Amino acid sequence: MTEWAFWGCLPFLAAAFVTDILSMRIPNRITVSTMIAGLLVQGIMNGWQGLLFAGGGAAAGFILLLIMYMIGAVGAGDVKLFAGIGAWTGILFTLQVLMYSVFFGALIGWIIVLRRKETGSRLRKIFSRVTGFMLLQSPGILKGNRSEMLRFPFMLAVIPGSVCAYLYF
């Protein structure tokens, strides 16, 4: 990834951040334009090699976030946005953004849980699900009810995750 790719992606991340904070949604006009712009810019700047770089990054971001979406960890807008991040920055940088974002997301989640004083009940539910999964070997046990899920805008974690990935890449 080159430095210009990060800076080119940043306005799209800022727009996604604002809409996610205000409405807990990232609209398609942001996610799709992020991906198309990343593919176009990489193709123009680096030719076919740039398109392969962008396509691989988009696929990696999409597939990994799709898995997280299927277990209920993120929304559909986050999935498409990570495809766009991948189109701009490639596979390795996208993986780093994801790793840092998950870390920051876990940190934010635990801060919320501690402030709500739900630590004991949340830990019991986690222990119960993991134990059930290990005994019954059924992945469906790990997925909680929609009402039990802790919800917050994932962009609160993606922005610092992106900055950390940029600083340490």
Largest sheet: none
Shape: elongated
Mean pLDDT: 88
Could you say how many structural domains there are in total? 1
Provide the gyration radius in Å.
17 Å
Terminal Cα span: 9 Å
Runs with pLDDT <50, length 5+?
none
User: What is the tally of helical segments?
Assistant: 5
Number of strands: 0
Oligomeric composition of the shown chains: single chain
Q: How would you classify the helix and strand content by structural class? A: mainly alpha
Helix content: over 70%
Domain Prepilin type IV endopeptidase peptidase: 10-109
Protein name: Prepilin peptidase
Transmembrane segments: 51-71, 91-114
GO cellular component, one term: plasma membrane
Describe the structure.
This protein is mostly helical and 169 residues long. The chain has one domain. The chain is built from 5 helices and no strands. The chain has helices spanning 3-23, 28-70, 76-116, 119-136, 155-168. The longest helix has 43 residues, at 28-70. The radius of gyration is 17 Å and the shape is elongated. It starts with a helix and ends with a helix.
